[in-house]
């Protein structure tokens, strides 16, 4: 994260002003299309957001998936930031209000002034979809950094990814997240389906050798068999190996392939920490 984005996210208006006065662009954005205001909204940084708005930042700039800073504030449940952005011209009908009502919870009250029936949110599509190709990452970057970059480029805020490459990244990320954060307490048909999807897609012999395909099938089988006691040892674990394979898959197949999506209404970026009791 650049110093400009970091200052906005941690709500340091003094540092933010100094960086802008030194020549940093108010319209700067990162690889996922987040502007400085997106970072302030994501961090609930009220003073930083006020400074940016006072300096003329556009509150309705979209990131690569068509989300505004207001959407980020709603997603992170920063009610005061939502009020500020709306008061300063952020359009709630670009997806933020629809998202708040879809997921329910405390953010719904922030849009109580709007009609009961809202128009559909604009269709959101990552900018990378218009090029049809995954842009190159930093040479020599670790696979963990690349997985994070690919997630930001290819995985939408909720639901399945629209491309095979994005869905491979999403499934490996969701499986690892569930294992490491929840100990697979929520394991069920959804995660089984992810394993089956990965087993099919990571059997691509234009990417992996026959021996590597067999090894990956073994890894996926182990994830399914041992889900009650997941391997969360870190480097070399089954989940790390799958995620690393997903990155390699994307690197060697950069031309995007459409994925037939299922319906999922829960947000993708932050899976809920719901723990089920084991019998």
Salient structural properties:
279 residues; mainly alpha; Serine Threonine Protein Phosphatase 5, Tetratricopeptide repeat; 13 helices; 0% strand; disordered C terminus
Question: What features would you describe in this structure?
Answer:
- The chain is an all-alpha fold and 279 residues long.
- The protein has two domains: 3-111, Ankyrin repeat-containing domain (Serine Threonine Protein Phosphatase 5, Tetratricopeptide repeat); 127-252, no CATH class.
- The chain is 49% helix and 0% strand.
- It is globular, with a radius of gyration of 20 Å.
- The termini are far apart.
- Mean pLDDT is 88; it is low at 262-279.
- Which percent band covers the strand fraction? under 5%
Q: What is the 3D shape?
A: globular
Please state the average pLDDT score: 88
Q: How many domains is the backbone divided into? A: 2
SS field, number of helical segments: 13
Secondary structural class: mainly alpha
Number of strands: 0
- Helices and strands, in N-to-C order? HHHHHHHHHHHHH
Q: Gap between N and C termini, in Å?
A: 43 Å
Question: Helical residue percent?
Answer: 40-55%
Q: Mind describing the biggest β-sheet?
A: none
